[in-house]
Amino acid sequence: LALWGILMTSSICLRQTDLKALIAYSSVSHMGLVTAAIIVQTPWGLTGAMTLMIAHGLTSSALFALANTNYQRTHTPTLLLVRSLQLIFPLMSTWWLLTNLTNMAMPPTINLLGELFIISTLFNWSSPTIVITGIGTLITATYSLYMFLMTQRGSISTQFRLLSPTHTREHLILILHLLPLGLLIMKPALISGLFT
């Protein structure tokens, strides 16, 4: 049921037009993996669940911070209306890219380590689960790229030509989210060694 929930919520993400709803459903999808790992009750599963919960907590929070930054300037969460922000905020676009890559568990992020632990655990428990987790991972990559492209690329709207610039505090918030994610992969035993 947890794996089926991953497929359903990931599929819902592909149809979202609201940025904050897309990020929220993305969190539900990732927590389906955590739930499946906890139910299996193996040391690797619990390690993966703990790792992914911490990693996703930082990633999802960073995505919501980015969505709020967009909302404060554009006053709309609709994806079709907030396009081409890369041309106006190139540094913020870099934060979007890094956070989305982390969200889809690209190497060398700690999210990948957590997902590998969980997928290995589920595969050892029942080999057909590799199909469901594989499809879920593919859909996650798809909606993460969709979110990045919809917010950052495209032709600029005339209503967004005079937006207020980003502030240092906004960049600091994102550094405080992404720096721990980068440092945790240097020493993953801090969070993954709890159950092994």
UniProtKB/TrEMBL annotation:
Question: Nucleus among the record's keywords?
Answer: no
The alphabetized UniProt keywords are: Electron transport, Membrane, Mitochondrion, NAD, Oxidoreductase, Respiratory chain, Translocase, Transmembrane, Transmembrane helix, Transport, Ubiquinone
Mind telling me which residue stretches traverse the membrane in this protein? 21-40, 46-67, 79-98, 130-151, 172-195
Cellular component GO terms, alphabetical: mitochondrial membrane
Biological process terms from the Gene Ontology for this record are:
ATP synthesis coupled electron transport; electron transport coupled proton transport
Q: Does the keyword Hydrolase apply?
A: no
| Name of the featured protein | NADH-ubiquinone oxidoreductase chain 4
Q: Which organism is it from?
A: Podarcis siculus
Which lineage do the record's taxonomy fields give for this organism?
A: Eukaryota, Metazoa, Chordata, Craniata, Vertebrata
**Gene it is expressed from:** ND4
